[in-house]
């Protein structure tokens, strides 16, 4: 049997995520957690002041491992924009792992946020952080202005939707590389504007400088 000395705060957080995913936020109770971990209530209060402290630790922990840590892992000069987007989507879809409740954990957190303002704030902060990162990468891939933001929003909305649909056996596996290729392809209007700008730049570079007019000799 585990003891308060052998358990860590993360052990309690993982157990709480499992209860959240399987039975909802009301199942995050000290007695349920103690039964799950095979310890007494004294062990819980050894690590957390109260249940509110555990719940706050849960959502902050989720934001770190499912957002901040994922983004930090993307900072690599070896990753092309295409590879970065593919890896980002795959990583977000894979975390948290089974020990945190499985792939439905984020869905459960979003349902929890609908009825808890503090959780909702953390989820919104995570959404903002992810979307800002995707928009920045879109700009790095050559898209500009509203289009970069729009494409980033579409990628993120698709990502959140995929998390919601996790576990649906009737759905085919998404072609993530193909989706990313489509998102990185400029729209016809943008492509035309880019082409026009390139033509103008090239023409300006090729145009010879005008010869100075000869000075008239005053008689």
TrEMBL record:
Residue intervals of the HTH tetR-type domain: 6-66
An example molecular function term from Gene Ontology annotations: DNA binding
Leader peptide range in chain numbering: none
Stored InterPro entries: Homeodomain-like_sf, HTH_TetR
Sorted UniProt keywords: DNA-binding
PROSITE patterns to which the protein is assigned, alphabetical: HTH_TETR_2
Pfam families per UniProt: TetR_N (PF00440)
Annotation: DNA-binding region: 29-48
Domain of life: Bacteria
Protein name as catalogued: TetR family transcriptional regulator
Lineage: Bacteria, Pseudomonadati, Pseudomonadota, Alphaproteobacteria, Hyphomicrobiales
